[in-house]
Design a protein that fits this description.
This protein is an alpha/beta fold and 203 residues long. Helix content is 39%, strand content 20%.
Amino acid sequence: SSLREDVRNMLTSRPWIVMGAEGPLVDALHARIEAMGGRVASLVSGARFGWIGEGRYRVRPDSREDLEAALVAVAAGGGLPPRVLHVGSVTGSAGPHNSAEAFEKAAASGFWSLVALSQAAYDLGVSNGLDVVVVADALARLDGEPGVRHAEKAAVLGACRDIPLEIPRLAMRAVDVPCADGADVPAWIPDALIREAVVVGAP
C-alpha cells in the first residue's frame, strides 16, 4: 500500500538515518525515503568510519566515535533530531542462530549498537527528541507462525526498555518483521516501517 499524503508530509519534517548491514533492506528504505522527498543518510557496517557516497557512510555499528561522526554529518543541516530506522538485527534465516557465535554477532549489531548510538546522541546534545525504531526479524513467534525464533536478538528488547529510562525524551521501540530471504525486499516492508516511524513517533 502507498503512503498517505499526511504520512509523506511528516516524512520530510526531520532527517532520517537508516542503519544496518549493507543490503537490500537498507537500500530499499533509503530509496523509498529519498523518493518521498525525505533527507536520509544510510550507515552501513564496516571496519572504520568513512564516507561512501551521497548520504551514505560506513561505520562500526557498536562504535560510539563512529556514530558520533555520522550524527555530526547528518545534523549538519540543522533542524529536528533524526528519526532512526535501526535494522542491524534483520539478518534473514541464513547464518548461525541460537548459538554462542550468533549471540556475539547479534550483540555488536543490536544491543551494543543501540547503546553506542544513544551515547553518541547524548554526547552531541541531540538525544532530546531522537526517535529510534529498532527492527528485527524472527524476534518473536506468534502462535501458529512458521519458522524459528532467533533468541540472540532478544537483548534489543532490553535496550528499548532501559535506554529511554536513562535518557529521557529519547524514544526507542522494537518492531518485529518476518524473515525475507529473497534478493528483493517486499515493498510493503519499507512502507510499513516508515509509517510506523512517522505515525507513532510523530512530533
